[in-house]
Structure formats: C-alpha cells, structure tokens
Amino acid sequence: LYPDNVAAVMNERQLTYRELNARSNRLARKLRETGVEADQLVAILAERSLDMVVGILAILKAGGAYVPVDPDYPEERIRFMIEDSGAPLLLIQKHLNEKTDFVGTRLELDDFVWGDRGADSEGALDASNLEPISGSSNLAYVIYTSGTTGRPKGTLIEHKNVVRLLFNDKNLFDFGPSDTWTLFHSFCFDFSVWEMYGALLYGGKLVIVQPLTAKNPADFLALLGREQVTILNQTPTYFYQLLRKVLADHPYDLRIRNVIFGGEALSPLLLKGFKTKYPETKLINMYGITETTVHVTYKEITWV
C-alpha cells in the first residue's frame, strides 16, 4: 500500500518497501534456480543487518524455510546447527565466509542486496513477484533452542503459526504503517520474529539495532528518540537497565506507544517510575516458548 515508505533502516542505509521487495525477489529467483522448493531448509549466517532481512524474505518468497545462524556463536555450534538441519544451501555475508567450513552451495548476500544483481542494472535478475509455491502449512523457519539436555534442538514453525501470532493479536493491538519498531534481538531468538514481521506485515518501519548499541542503554535510548520508535519489545532484564537512563534527565522526546515484555518473568512494581513519567504508554506482559511461536499470553499492566 505504501511502496515508497521506508521499510527497514540501519545507520545511514535504508530500503523502501519497493526496494526491499525487488531485492528479495531477485534473490528468491536465484534460490529457485538452485532448487529451493516448499519446505526446503536454507541456512542463513548473517549479522543483524539489512542483508539479513532481505535474505530471510527471499528464502520465504522462494518457498523455503530459513534456519538462522548467529555468527557470534562458537564454530562448533555453527557447524552443528547447519549439519543437523540438513540445509543444502547457505546464505552468508561475504566477510563471514571463514566462520564455517560448510561444503554445500553458498550464495553471498552482499551481491543481491547492494551488488549489481540486487540493483536495477542490466545483469540483474527479474524483480517481479514470484508465484507462491508454499502454503499456510509449509515451514517458515527453524529456530534452534538450547533443548532440555543442553543439546541444541530445532523447532519447526509453519507459516500459519506466524499469521496467527500477528493477526489474532490484532484484536489486542492497533499496529499500523505509522509505527516504528526496533529489531533489537538476535534472529536466533524468536522475539525477532515478532519484531520483524510485526513491523513489515503492518507496513511500519523496522529499525535494525547494532549489537554494540543494544549493549549500551544510553546509546539505545538515543536511538529510540532519534528514530521516534513507537513499539518497543524487551526482556525485563534489559528494560530494567534501560529504565535507569529513561528515568534520568535526558533530551530525547520519546514516542513509545507500547512496551511489550517477553522471554522471562516480569516484576511489575519495578515499572512504577516509568508509568508515572509516561502514563500514556501501554505496558504489556506476554509469554510463550519457541514451540508455540513467540507469545501465547497477554496481560496489560495497569495497576502499577
């Protein structure tokens, strides 16, 4: 509906919905050429970036399911996840090639996001939308959890689970194209599913947060003000650290409409100072596990 609106931004780089769609379509076409079909697993080894978002969407458009692999993981875990998934194809950023000894087919994301094959050049692939080959019961992604034994375990999630998550919850939220979200969490943590698709499926803007910024509450607070973030998703532990900066004097005009908690137990009494300073911001506690697709419970915190 809004092809020229900004879809995703990181630092000085951004992609509109039109650009994001074209780049992911071109890469999806290449994936189809390499044999990707419905339920085909494709591993993606990438830092949190615009490249990563394009890669994920391309895998889904091609009909496959993505297996996110964090480059910060130890080499042994990276190897285990790729081998255990059985993915015959790896999307990877060029500078991360030495992170894995994967011997299957590799495609470098950089070429399709910023190179000639991702732009409107003579040698670029067709950027039109592909005919869908997967349906609601096909796989969307496989996220590896620690498992009860400490051995990583792949959790298979279908498209209908993600649709249920975002559109059943529509009765609880009023997300829209005027919202700005942060992609704060690793794509190996399913909170990222909520963040990424919550922004893109409702036509909002996704601000991709650099890991160094995420680790520094003062820098993250500055980003929230600069980007005018309206939907913030946090684990309670990190939000308590951010809270110290938020409650102190700062020059930022925050526009946060919803703070959504997940991932661990919440102590509502610790939110009293925030609710006093920002009474119009909704504080919502949600809970779920990877197997149930991010969130299954909802409780607005009003009594603090």
TrEMBL record:
Ranges in a coiled coil: none
A single Gene Ontology CC annotation of this entry is: cytosol
GO BP, one example?
amino acid activation for nonribosomal peptide biosynthetic process
**GO MF annotation, one:** phosphopantetheine binding
Q: Which Pfam families match?
A: AMP-binding (PF00501)
Q: Where is the AMP-dependent synthetase/ligase domain?
A: 2-298
Q: Which domain of life is it from?
A: Bacteria
- Could you identify this protein by its name? AMP-binding protein
Q: Which organism is it from?
A: Paenibacillus alvei (Bacillus alvei)
